[in-house]
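in:
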């Protein structure tokens, strides 16, 4: 994600607006990272369960 554009003005308000916009960009990026990690964790859990269920059982019980 591209960062927020630097402010054109030199007032404190311009820099506060820039800081808010930059923080919003970072929040979006962090949310996407968390979502991706969650998806990978759920996929890995699903795969582990599928492997566990697919293994043959000794005498049908183990």
């Amino acid at each position: 994600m591209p960062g927020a554009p630097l402010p054109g003005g030199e007032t404190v308000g311009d820099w506060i607006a820039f800081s808010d916009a930059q923080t919003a960009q970072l929040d979006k990026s962090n949310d996407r990272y968390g979502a991706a990690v969650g998806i990978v964790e759920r996929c890995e859990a699903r795969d582990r369960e599928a492997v566990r269920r697919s293994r043959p059982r000794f005498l049908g019980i183990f």
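note: The chain has a mean pLDDT of 85.
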